[in-house]
Amino acid sequence: MDAALSYAGVSAGYHGTPVLTHVDLTLAAGQRLALVGPNGAGKSTLIKSMLGLVPVLGGTAAVLGRPPAQARSMTGYVPQTDSLDADFPVTAAQVVLMGRYRRIGWWRPTRAADRSAVRAALDQVGLADRAGKHFGTLSGGQRQRVLLARAIAAEPRLLLLDEPFNGVDTVSQEAILAVLRSLSAAGVAVVLSTHDLTVASELADIVCLLNGRQWAAGPPGETLTAEKLRAAYGGSALVEL
Question: Is residue 241 part of a domain?
Fold first, then answer.
């Protein structure tokens, strides 16, 4: 089976200018990768490159054995800031159903399989009882769990999450972590960016330290060391693991 992610000497950026360089990563099915670094380090850029939304300017990049853009239908994405307006009159279940649109096709009726996938995804994130609730009336943590359910409903082989714990309450964070562990146990590869070194240490199989370039990558115990964190953060890292 193709690796979920295979990056060799990758640089990525905008308008021909690299934001991130020297990225070498391999992620197998079922593995969890945490991207760690300060604000502006290139974490979001790297995730978007995996979706084919940011161009790879150098090196070779493959997602599920394909060029990133061609693998997008097999990839789930939970963005850092979602474009969905909390005031838009849509229920939690309708938001999750959006994750099925590629399978359904535009303007086609939903099928029993789609409705079942929506129910299962909401149940997986612990919000089955909120299916009919207006998305905007949910708490920030619950909205984030609904967006995760939307990604799950697409039945991805690779799940990408950009700072999924920002502004999320403890209950929702624990629920999200439990879902990510369950998904990876089922063979889904997971990539998430985070500022939380404890989450990275406890959740990830591989941690990648970024700040304009890849500074280190490997198991948490080998990567989240005081020396490597200070190097990646420019000497300003506060290490509390």
Answer: no
pLDDT tens figures, 146-170: 999 999 999 999 999 999 998 899 9
Residue 217 has pLDDT above 60, yes or no: yes
Question: Is residue 110 situated within a structural domain?
Answer: yes
Q: How far apart are CA 199 and CA 197, in angstroms?
A: 5
Q: What is the pLDDT of residues 106-157, one digit of tens each?
A: 666 778 889 899 999 999 999 999 999 999 999 999 999 999 999 999 999 9
Q: Please state, in angstroms and rounded to a whole number, the distance separating the CA atoms of residues 230 and 105.
A: 48
- Number of independent structural domains in the chain: 1
Distance from C-alpha of 62 to C-alpha of 42, rounded to nearest angstrom = 18
Residue 229, helix vs strand vs coil:
helix
**Coil, strand, or helix at residue 76?**
strand
- Residue 241's pLDDT is 46
CATH number for the domain spanning 14: value is: 3.40.50.300
189, part of any domain: yes
Structural domain of residue 178, as residue ranges?
5-232
Whether 238 is in a domain gets the answer: no
